[in-house]
Amino acid sequence: MIPSVFVLVSIIPLLCAAAPTPNSSLKPPPKLQPQPLNITTITGNAHNESALECWSVAKLVVSETPGTQGALAASLAEPTALSFINIPAKFDGGLHNAPAVQWVYFTSGKAIITLPTSPDKAVVKGGANGLILAADIPAVSKRGHTTVYPSREPTVAVVMPLARNKVPEHTVLHSGACTAEEQDISV
User: Fold this and answer.
1) Distance between CA 164 and CA 166 in Å, rounded?
2) What local confidence, expressed as pLDDT, does residue 165 receive?
3) CA–CA separation, 90 and 29 (whole Å)
4) Which parts of the chain have pLDDT scores under 50?
5) How far apart, in whole angstroms, are the C-alpha atoms of residue 141 and residue 122?
6) What is the DSSP string of 120-146?
7) What pLDDT score does 4 carry?
8) pTM of the shown model
9) Rounded to the nearest 10 degrees, how much is the dihedral formed by the CA atoms of 49, 165, 39, 126?
10) pLDDT score, position 125
11) What is the largest CA-CA distance in the chain?
């Protein structure tokens, strides 16, 4: 039997020879163009009820920051905190208001947002297009919204409340959730 240390030491040169040098197998990035960042927002309407709207909240511009230079980036409103939440599979968040005006970024899983007074709903899949703004705080919505997480796996979210519950500058594109095409930030 060959000692495992010997096998490991013997294959390291082969692995190193086969590994590409940094960036040698990567194509140069495509020339990206600025584009809007559209997100589904849960807000309050004139009747003090929660409503879904599609908002354009920022312009994705070409980053000049080292490490992301050439990628698309947007500066979002100033958060006051950052929370990591691991939501169990098949979880029902119940009827609730947003506790603060906050960005919610679903990194994995799925969230289904419904309203108690409307047939509108938003289905948010975690990942690149998983950013929403929850702004239906009690001051603008009597009852809030319901969120369920139907995935078989946990849903992971990062929540960032905004300073002074200030809604970021935006343009309302239409009532209802954004379509997948409107939120597509793939390059």
Assistant:
1) 5
2) 94
3) 39
4) 1-21
5) 17
6) EEEEEESSTT-EEEE---TTT-SS-EE
7) 33
8) 0.81
9) -100
10) 95
11) 78
φ/ψ of 62, rounded to 5, equals: -75, 120
Between the alpha carbon of residue 163 and those of residues 43, 118, 146, the distances in Å are 17, 29, 24
pLDDT the model gives residue 74: 87
Look-up of token digits 């020339």: 31
The alpha carbons of the chain give a radius of gyration, in whole angstroms, of: 21
Q: Which are the contacts of 84, defined by CB distance < 8 A and separation ≥ 6?
A: 156, 157, 158
CA–CA separation, 154 vs 93, rounded Å?
A: 13
Per DSSP, the chain holds a count of helices (H) and strands (E) of 2, 12
Give the whole-angstrom CA distance, residue 157 versus residue 180: 19
Dig out the tokens for 54 from the structure.
């599609």
According to DSSP, residue 163 is labeled G
The secondary structure element, H or E, covering residue 15 is helix 4-18
Burial class of 146 by CB neighbour count within 10 A (0 to 12, 13 to 18, 19+)? middle
Token digits for 28? 């140069």
Q: Token pair 């920022």 is at which residue?
A: 58
Tokens 């500066």 correspond to 75
Tokens of 119: 């047939």
Query: What pLDDT shows up at residue 35?
Result: 86
Whole-number Å distance between alpha carbons of 120 and 103 = 20
Residues in the chain: 187
Supply 138's token pair.
């009690």
